[in-house]
Design goal:
Layout lengths: L25 H33 L3 E10 L8 E9 L5 E8 L2 E3 L10 E3 L4 E10 L9 E7 L2 E7 L7 H10 L7 E3 L3 E6 L2 E10 L5 E8 L4 E5 L4 E3 L4 E10 L2 H4 L6 E8 L2 E8 L2 H15 L2
Parallel strand pairs: 1-17
Antiparallel strand pairs: 1-2, 2-6, 3-5, 3-7, 4-6, 7-8, 9-11, 10-11, 11-15, 12-14, 12-16, 13-15, 16-17
Length: about 300
């Protein structure tokens, strides 16, 4: 019968080297424990660094600046287009996907809304949104900003500045008056027209109760450019100022397809600028069609 191999049998380890009979060095006795502690420390450091990196990538610091308002969005006669200026004061680049303005209802067209805006650290950007005033909720000046960072998507609350009344003014324009800013363009008249351009007078009327200043007027009719008399001009309540403009064809392909003549009027009122979209009447539309024929079909 083959004896069983039981291995070494005897008293437990005495803490001595079996070959020399000398005690083990103290460092040998603590090697295993030290290695285990070292592994645990490394794992802890890596996990902590990962948490710190994730927190840093998720950090979002945005500050809101001014808000520019454009009445008469094509989405709705009651809609406004807000251009919100934001600065990224955080450490990393981020994408601003969209914004919701408290006190307003965000309107989304068939295209799903504006494209995301990339904001580098320390950079001012302008984010566009189409809204309708929620007349039951006076805006507190805060925004819900939807962003994408290195750690994913999130929403953050961005407050306004002390004394900031731009959103209040925009909200009042949407809720408390039918014509918003009070400015409108009356019946136009043509002074002269040939292939070099059409000189058209635009009567600018202030239908509101407060004085306003027209600081800029720009053509928003596809295919055309427009210059004006020197601006700004002041328009008292209930008064009309005549502004002479010169229209020229900039792109025949676009000019051949336009269906409505429009301009954007920038007014200064109550310490803020507002850009107002204004349609022009049939006389201007007909004159621009004639100008297109003279320039592009001869």
């Amino acid at each position: 019968m083959v004896p069983l191999e039981l291995g070494a049998v005897g008293p437990p380890d005495s803490g001595q080297d079996p070959d020399s009979g000398r005690p083990w060095p103290a460092w040998r006795m603590w090697t295993g424990l030290g290695a285990a502690l070292l592994v645990g420390a490394v794992v802890g450091i890596v996990a902590n660094n990962a948490r710190n990196d994730a927190a840093e990538y998720a950090e979002v610091d945005l500050i809101r600046g001014t808000v520019d308002v454009e009445f008469g969005s094509p989405l709705s006669s009651d809609a406004q287009r807000l251009y919100v200026n934001l600065i990224n004061t955080g450490p990393r680049e981020l994408e601003i996907l969209s914004i919701d303005v408290d006190g307003f209802t965000t309107m989304t067209g068939a295209d799903g809304g504006p494209d995301p805006v990339t904001a580098a650290p320390g950079e001012w950007v302008q984010v566009e949104t189409n809204v309708e005033a929620d007349c039951d909720t006076r805006p507190p000046g805060t925004l819900q900003v939807h962003v994408r960072t290195g750690s994913g998507e999130q929403s953050v609350v961005v407050t306004g500045q002390p004394g900031d009344d731009q959103l209040i003014w925009a909200w009042q324009g949407g809720c408390q008056s039918a014509d918003g800013t009070g400015v409108f363009i009356g019946d136009t008249r043509t002074i002269s027209a040939d292939a070099s351009g059409a000189r058209i007078v635009l009567p600018v009327t202030n239908g509101g109760e407060e004085p306003l200043t027209v600081s800029a007027m720009d053509a928003t009719t596809p295919g055309f450019t427009m210059t004006t008399d020197p601006l700004p001009i002041d328009v008292a309540p209930g008064q009309t100022q005549q502004v002479t403009t010169v229209w020229t064809v900039a792109d025949c392909a676009d000019a051949a397809r336009f269906t409505e003549a429009t301009i954007a009027v920038t007014i200064h009122n109550e310490s803020m600028d507002t850009r107002v979209s204004q349609p022009l009447g049939n006389p201007t539309l007909i004159e621009l069609v004639r100008l297109t024929v003279r320039v592009c079909e001869t």
